[in-house]
Amino acid sequence: MLPAESFAGNGCGGASWYALRSKTASGERMNPAVLTAAHRSLAFGTKVKVTNRNNGRTVVVRINDRGPFIRGRVLDLSRAAAQNIGMVSSGTAKVCYQVIS
What are the entry keywords (predicted)? Predict the structure, then answer.
């Protein structure tokens, strides 16, 4: 059997947040106040539960963009999502994520 991290729907790694107002890869405008995220391969619209490994806080986000493009990172979160899991001030955090729908 393969470890959970090898399945694109589940994984752990670094996350960062961004608050641009440009268009996302899905074509919608990035809104930092909405619970969204960027992932390299998950389908747009996929709902993902993200857990901050440092404090245990979780948030559910919708994938609407592609990225991150920095080695070791698995998600780029909107500012609102980052705020929900307590990582705005640090800018990055170790997270685990799981596809929920």
Answer: Cell wall biogenesis/degradation, Lipoprotein, Lyase
